[in-house]
Amino acid sequence: MEDDWYMEFLDLILAARVVDNLDEAIDHIATYGSLHTEAIVTSDYGNAQRFIREVNSGVVLVNASTRFADGNQLGLGAEIGISTTKLHSFGPMGLEDLTTTKFIVYGDGQVRA
């Protein structure tokens, strides 16, 4: 059901789609992704690098659990909020306020308990 792709379940529920190639996967993410966290499981280094370049999310993981997309896990201290926008400053802004961060996490199958 297409409505499932827009859902954030906040439970042990998974909506999964099997695609034929990397182009379809990236297109699906561009259409339905949250801009927060996306992951790829692959043994193809070229596909991993393309995924990192073309997926527009704050955290992109290669062969690692999306549960690592956490402020504390990324060395930011206690997570106090989550943003899925690209610009979240208000009022006078300096250069730092006009930049965004993209975390890239490489793994080989790690999970977070």
Topology:
Elements: H1 22-32, E1 37-40, H2 45-54, E2 59-64, E3 103-110
Features:
113 residues; Aldehyde Dehydrogenase, Chain A, domain 2; 19% helix; globular; alpha/beta; single chain
Summary of the model, kept short:
With 113 residues, the chain is of the alpha/beta class. The protein is built from two helices and three strands.
Structure, explained:
With 113 residues, the protein is α/β, with parallel strands linked by helices. The protein has a single domain (2-110), classed as Aldehyde Dehydrogenase, Chain A, domain 2. It is 19% helix and 16% strand. It is built from 2 helices and 3 strands, in the order H-E-H-E-E. The protein has helices at residues 22-32, 45-54, and strands at 37-40, 59-64, 103-110. A 3-stranded parallel beta sheet has the order 1-2-3, covered by helices on one side. Helix 2 (45-54) links the parallel strand 1 and strand 2 (59-64). The longest helix has 11 residues, at 22-32. The chain is globular, with a radius of gyration of 15 Å.
